Hints:
111 residues, 3-stranded parallel β-sheet, single chain
Amino acid sequence: EGKTSLEIKELRDFYLGKVKFYKGAIIKPVNAKGKGLLSKFLREVCGMSIADYQNHWVKLELEMGIDSPGVMESSQEVITYIRNEKAGLGYAWEDEAKDAPGIKIVLVLAE
């Protein structure tokens, strides 16, 4: 079936709006707000604080008209979104995602 994982740089590029396509599909990333997950993901994958990330997207939205990734309230909402959206991309706590049917885990960050 091809590549089943993504490098951190690839995830970063999707979440910073630098890359929109993967294998011919328009990738639709979402962020999760719950339990410190957003700040951990942004720090470890994008190398940014929440404020820096928000400022980055305000600039892109104003200058280029690019929509920022959507926001889900919890890991469970992200998992449901990914299951239902063919080109969906998101993140969740590993213990909530590892046995979830209908999704593919492409990267696991250390606890």
